[in-house]
Design brief:
about 65% helix, mainly alpha, 6 helices, elongated
Length: about 120
């Protein structure tokens, strides 16, 4: 048997190291996903969603789908839902309800007055 370390052995180790790095990146990205989504949509329990996501990853992915679903569901009575915010933009639902006055027109800028 030849006990030398050749070029192909080194190449195999490099490929193996790259595969391990990619696997770690994928696991970390999946672990962060529900928490990021919950924070993005201002979920009132975003911290708990984040913790549940990491526990789900640590248990082999068993609880991770529940954390992802939890990130999409807003509890009742917590203000406008994410769907309303997507349709109207954040904060517009409250402003429309509080004032039924039309929005004031903006005045033209100096550059718009100088059109040829």
């Amino acid at each position: 048997m030849d006990a030398s370390f050749g070029v192909l052995d080194a190449f195999a180790f490099v490929v193996f190291a790259v595969l391990i790095a990619v696997a770690v990146i994928i696991v970390v990205s999946l672990g962060q996903l529900p928490g990021r989504l919950a924070r993005k949509w201002r979920h009132p329990q975003a911290s708990a969603v984040n913790v549940a996501s990491w526990i789900g990853i640590a248990t082999g992915g068993l609880l991770w789908p529940l954390a992802l679903i939890w990130a999409f569901i807003s509890p009742s009575g917590s203000g406008p839902s994410r769907i309303e915010n997507d349709q109207h933009g954040p904060g517009e639902a409250e402003s429309e309800a509080s004032s039924n006055q039309p929005a004031p027109l903006r005045e033209p800028s100096r550059h718009e007055d100088m059109r040829p």
